[in-house]
Every structure is written in C-alpha cells, then in structure tokens.
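Exercise 3.2. Students should predict the tertiary structure of the chain below and write it as structure tokens, then compare their answer with the key that follows.

Predict this chain's 3D structure.
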Amino acid sequence: MKKTISILITLLSTSVLWSQNVDFKASNFKGKEGFKAAKEAVSKGNEYYDQGMEAVFNVSDYGLLFKKALIHFNDAQKFNPNNGELNFRIGVCHVNSSDPSLAIPYLKKAWELDPKADPFLQFYLGVAYQLEGKFDEAIKQYESFENNYRKADNYSKFSTKRIKECELAKKAYKKPERVWVDNISELNTSADEIAPSISTDGSELILSSNRKTNKTSNEVGEYDMDILSTSLRNGKWSYPKHISGAINTMDNEVSNTLSYDGTRMLLHRETKEGSDIYESHLKGANWTDPEKMSSMISSTKANEKYGCYNDDGYKVYFTRDNDNRSNGMDIMFSSVQSKIRKDFKAATMVSTCNSKFNEGPIYMSVDGDLMYFASEGHGSLGGYDIFVSEKKQGQWTEPVNLGYPINTVYDDFFFSPTANGKYAYIASNRSGGKGGFDIYKITFWGEPKEPAIDIEDYLLASVAMPLKDNQIESTVDVNKKSLTVFKGNTLDAISRKAVEASIEITDNSSGKIIETFTSNSATGKFIITLNSGRNYGIAVKAPGYLFHSENFDIPMGSADNLVDKTIELKNIAVGSKIALRNIFFDVGKATLRSESNAELERLVKLMKDVPGLKIEISGHTDDTGSALVNDKLSQDRAEAVMNYLAGKGISAGRMTAKGYGSSRPVSMLKTTEGRQMNRRTEFEILSN
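Answer key:
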C-alpha cells in the first residue's frame, strides 16, 4: 500500500513539474549549457514576431516574419520546452502559416503552463478550438478575451469577427452543401500547392508550388513558388511539371487565371520590391516571357495580386493593397480604353465585394455574370472563404458564401470551375491534407433527384474526369446562359501534323463575326465557348492550304455541351513535300499492306477535292544493300502507290512515280532509327 502511494506521489509530482511554467531566468538553469544562446534566440524571434503582429493588426502582408521568428523560437524551445509565453508565440507563428493546425498543441500547452502568459492567449486559444471545430468552446474564449482585454487598440474587431465565424460555421457544418471535396493526391506534396486554373475543356490544369527544386532555398529554408502544369489522362492527373517557357525565375511566380481560350495567362510575381501582375502568351509549346501589366493595374505605389480576365478579355479584375486603408487587399478592376492600343483606365474599386479584411483570388464565369472570389471578411466561416457575387443591372450583388464543405474554418481560396459547372478546383490548408496548401476537387451533385435515379451518377462524380461527351446532365446552375465548349485541332490532312490556322466563328442568323483567333502552332489546338440555340459558321485559313468552311447547329437546351472537332486542312502549296509515314510494305517487296489504307484514302480524298493537283510520288530506301536493288525497290513501291490511286479513279496523267533509292536521305545517322527515317514514301505537289 505504501509503495502504491509512493508511486502516485511520484506521478503527481512529475505531472506538476511538466505543467509548471519555467521562465527564462538563469536561476532556473543552474549548471546547464545553452541558456545564453536560448535567451538570445527568444530575443531575436521576438523582433520578427512583434513586426508580424503589427502587420496582422493592420491587415497587411506579414511575409516571412512569422517564419523567421519560428526558427529562433524553435531553437529556444529545444532548451526550454515548458515556457508558457514561448509556447504561445510558437502557436501564433503556426496560426499565421500555411499549416495552422500545428498551432493547436502549443496554444493548449501555453494555457496549461501559464494562463497569463500573454494578453492574447485566450484569443488564440479560441483560434485553436475553432480549428478543431469546437465552436462553443471557441466562442467562450473569444468572449472572455473581450471582457478582459480593454485596451484602446480596438483588437476586439478580430474577436467579434471570430465569434461571427463560429456562429456561421455551427450552422453551415450542420447543413452541408450537396458537394464532394476530394484531395487530388497526385498533384500535392508536403509543400504548398495553390492557384489551380483549369482549362475550359477540363483537360489541363496550371498550378503553383514551392516544392523542392534544384534552386537555392530562401532564408527560412523554403523554395520559391513556380508555375507547373498537368494534364488529365484516363481519369488521372499527370505529375506536375514546370511550365514550358521563360516564366519561372528565382522570384515567386503564382499563376492567377487562364483566358478562356487557353492562350493567355495572368500571374503575379513577388520580388523584394513588391508584387505585380504580369501576362504571358502561349506561343506553340512555350509560354512567353511575362510582361508587366499596365501601370493602371501593376502600380508603383502598391502591391497587386490575383489578376483575372472578364468574359471578353478586355477588363481585368485584381486585388491591391491600399496604403490609405487598413483593410488589406481590395478587389478592383481596370478596363481597356482602346482595343488597338490596349491602354487601361484608372482602376476602380468593386465596393460591394470588399470587406474590412483581405480579399483574395478572383475568377469570372464564362458568361461574365458571376464573380467568385476569396475573402477573410463578409460571412467567412474562418480564414479565407470562397464567395460568389452576381452582376445585376451592371452592379455586383452582396457576396454569398459557397458553404461547407467547400469552405471550412481553414483557408479555402482560389476557385476555378470547369465550363459545365459540374466541377471546380480550389486550394485549401484544411486538416487531413499532405501538408500546407493542397489542391482539392469540388464535385457538385446538383439539385436533389428522384430516388429512382441511377446511383452510378454519384459514384462516377468522385472520379476526376473532364467534360467528354454530348450528354446533357442536370447539375448546379452555375452558368446563367446555355453554353457549349467548342474545341478541336487543325491538322494537315495527310501528315496529321499540327497546322497554325486563323479561325473565324460567325453567327449565321445575324452574319456577325463573333470571334477570330489562331490555333496553337505546336498542337493545332483551339477552345472557345459558344451560346447554344444557334447555327454557326466556321472558316479556317492557313498559308498553303485550301480554305475550309462548314456550319453546325448547337440546339437550345444543349447546356454545358462539348463539341470536339478535328479540322483537316489540305496542303496545296507547289513544292510541298509530305512524307507518308503510315504506308507500309512487306519486307523487301513492293506489296502494300492493309495498314496503309487509311493514309492512302486521305491522299485519294485530297486528289479528288483538288482536281487540278498534280503530284510526284517518290520511293526512298536506306543505304544498306545494293544500290541497284534499292533503286528498283523504291521505284516499284512508288508505282504501287500510284496504281492504288489510279484504281480509285485518279487520272494517271496527274501522277508520276519516281524511285530515288538511297540518294536522298533525310537522316545521316547510321543507326536503326536513322535508317527507319530514310525508308519512306513521299509525295510532292508539282502544280495546283
């Protein structure tokens, strides 16, 4: 019995010692090395901490201040882990990081060690409970803080805001929206992944990340933000790679939004001088070196972030911190005065969408009637939340919170929906991710359906799939207009290589040209959104190719549809040579194999579509074997192709056949690959 009591006394005394506050006094650490270094670490950390807290109070950007403080605080924590004030300050540093859940144990320990460690301890203990979803406990701490903290600095505006967040979150969590929120694991790492921007057809995604690279890390051991891209293939996103072109530098580059045709991108670049918005253009496979936007947008006296095109591309929305306001970043816009000169007007504030706290990334719907944006104010559930405002009679309405689980008590921002409104992509640092900010996919269920509906709709909805067919589905009414995504490629009809072409879309009912654009030179790809219920004409032009035109209907009711079209252009330029890489012969013979038919039929069609076309069909071999044998084999193969065309009704007078053997190599490599390239059939246009 005595032994049991002794053990209990030992355990109780150990518990008391663990929970006892240990001040940074020399008398508490007799005979211990490192006290002086720990004391200095606390002092250095406090310098950054105090600057960070001043920025928080002024609703301004605190940058790396809390991260710098945390490095020194952690050094001191190793020496003395039982100081209430130090635990509190470490917790506050984590609250103001991309991984705020790390703050919870430190703030709770600070309260256990010394409830009077800091005047703000009850406020931040409330933050810890709020992050855990314990809203009633959080409200008690905030209210107690308000009763005990009576200074004239008006910090109560933050506790009042927090209490409102908890009240709203209690209601929102009890009545979640009809959505799924899934972490896209293949895109995320323990670093931060933010700024998702989805292409109109849902097949390409651009994002930003500070994951480890071969660059040098900064003073807090982090890497700069770079812009990455990924593609959706068979329901899975590819591993994100650095975007091609001269965009990423040693500074922070953060993608903002893509234009609806995918050929322009707004981004902001953060340097020592501040933050400005830039624009880059997709030229072929590469993005151009970004150019800083007009001084009306990227000013010299303020920081700008999160640029976004409106629906016609001639107005840019963005956020700016204003020195004369302590409201953080505000939403503004600037319009082009002249579409020829592309000069912008002075920026105007969007008053109904700005709060007394920071506004964040912006996204405009395809029809321009909805603005999605992130905000720390308005009716946030905690941190940044995503809101939507609707344009009515030229004015933006009061923002509406998108609700839980899209929004949580953590930071949820960036909102990039697919054109059909079924999916959206966000960045969030909510608990349960891979660390820091992760990319999440939102799947909208739509309005409640009859019980007889096939449950397959719901099962399929959680799989990342782009809009891929013409089926009309009843989903959330995100777009106010009935829109169709018209995408495609412009290709050479024979070689199947991409052709950069000028494309004109006409509304045939009015005769009005509604869009003129150019397909991508590297891929031939183009994307545009069109209103349903109309007949359209498409005209495609490219130097050296036949003019292509056709018309197509998009019936009314074809909401959020997809038209995917490959446009084959016929090359008629005199002197053009095209290698027919998909024509195959038996080994050492001139016998055409059946796999050649598709390529041969495309050539037949070209000859019939352009009756004046005259061509030379040529055969080529590699340099192995006898030159005489190669010359004859190449001649026989050229004649075999000519005979096939003649058998399809093409006049023999429009064709000549010539075998060149190995005399005209296209590769000088003495390798298997080089010889394969030299073995080919070509046709050259002699006249048109």
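Discussion points: Residues 1-18, 451-480 have pLDDT under 50 and may be disordered. Residues 577-687 form a domain with the 60s Ribosomal Protein L30; Chain: A; fold (CATH 3.30.1330.60).
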